[in-house]
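User: Before I run my own analysis I want an independent prediction to cross-check against. Here's the chain; please return only the structure tokens and, at the end, one sentence I can use as a sanity check.
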Amino acid sequence: MVTERQEFLQGGLRPVVCDCGNRVLVKKNSLQHTSVQWTSDAARSCAEFASRGGNTALIPTCLRLRDSIEKAVREGVLEVEDE
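Assistant: Structure tokens:
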């Protein structure tokens, strides 16, 4: 049961390093759907989030991280699952 839950929550996640140096775990379920698991407190480790007051619930995304994920897909480091 624990293994199934762990696979559901973490399966397919791959490390991606943002241009700012943060490391996150990412899964591209499709071109439109991306799952991101922060490995540290985003409000403290992401300069973009910190510059906006650190309330990450009100920030839709870190643009540098989005660009880093798109770059990883282009370079074949991160695969899109439904392709």
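Sanity check: Residues 4 and 11 are 9 Å apart (CA to CA).
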